[in-house]
Amino acid sequence: NSTLVHLYLSPTSSSFPSLLISIRSDASFYSRSAMSSKPRIATRLKEAIGASNPNYSSPDLKTLTEQFTVLRGRLNTLVVALAEHHDAMIRLNKTRSSVARAISDISEKSPIYVYAGAPQPAIMTADDDIPEDEGETTVSYASVHSVLASRHEMYTERYLHFVVEYASEWEKVVVTKITASLKKAEHLRLDLDHYQSKVDGMQQSIRNAVDRGKPVDPNQSERLRRNEDKLAKARDEYETFVSALCVLLEEVTDSCWKDLQPLLIKIIQFEFTLNSDEARFLQNINHALDALEDVARKHGLDVNAPEGPGITKCRQFDEPTVRRKSSRAETNNEPVAEDGI
Predict the structure, then answer these.
(1) Is the dihedral of CA 27, 29, 32, 37 positive or negative?
(2) CA nearest to 101, candidates 124, 122, 114, 118
């Protein structure tokens, strides 16, 4: 039952060593159950090198698989885009809060501090509005953004849970299930092709024996019958599974808009609520804007000036010196120093 084959290859030159290959084959080494659980390697290799074509290949499954491949790429793009947008929302909230804190620090101990950086939590009620009896009180830029930052953090968490996680779960469930099912369909197809090739070979062997006038071996006929039963079972399993898989693929690909609709509704609701809420808060800053204009007029500042007086004075700091030296040089017909000193 056991055969040991030694193949000795003589070296063609002294630089190449001899090669001794020992191949041990044992018919009882593999059990029948172990062989049946292995993929049909021979069938797969023949198809890979073009020695044979698949006997069974569903054109509908092939078309739907191509459509699924496109959808899988688009789903991944959507998930990545939503995750990046969520990260951008977090960064926006942090940078906007940083701007408000910086403005509060610079305006400290100044006439505009109460409108720029003063923390005024009492101004914000549970309804996030200014109380009617506090009409004369003005919220500051920093206080409004402090409340906005807290609410924006809540909104980003909701966006992650209801939008990003929905898309991620959509991609995970669909891709995982369809990928595994396609692998199973391919495994069933290989089994079907295997038994079809095996039955075809046995039938051809029997025909050849009959053509030569030899009696048909009863054992061979029995093996043919058993493999024909296996072939019929493999064909039924493949066709049943592929039919159900095609229905699922069609639902996943052609009707993917039905899975997109709940996500789109969540996104629209989120954006409308977020923007409406922020607009309602930011309206409170209008009181600060009016107050800042009053402070500017009280201190003799032009509210429409393109820049503050300190910036303007820094720009003009050395200009009088240059003009005076230029006038003296023109009177004495002397060149003006390039550095203006």
Answers:
(1) negative
(2) 118
CA distance 201 to 220: 11
Is residue 286 packed enough to be buried (19+ CB in 10 Å), middle (13-18) or exposed (0-12)?
exposed
3-state secondary structure of 9: strand
Q: Residue 19: in which H helix or E strand, if any?
A: strand 19-26
pLDDT in single tens digits along all 341 residues of the chain = 333 333 333 344 443 333 333 333 333 333 443 444 454 555 554 444 444 455 667 899 999 999 999 999 999 999 999 999 999 999 999 999 999 999 999 999 999 999 998 886 544 443 444 434 344 456 899 999 998 999 999 999 999 999 999 999 999 999 999 999 999 999 999 999 999 999 999 999 888 888 888 887 888 889 999 999 999 999 999 999 999 999 999 999 999 999 999 999 999 999 999 999 999 888 888 888 888 999 999 999 998 889 999 998 998 887 666 555 555 555 555 554 444 43
Extract the tokens encoding 128. 């996030």
- Pairwise CA distance, residues 176 & 70, whole Å: 15
Query: Measured between alpha carbons, how far is 307 from 321 in angstroms, rounded to an integer?
Result: 23
Give CA–CA dist 341/335, Å, rounded.
13
d(CA 192, CA 43): 10
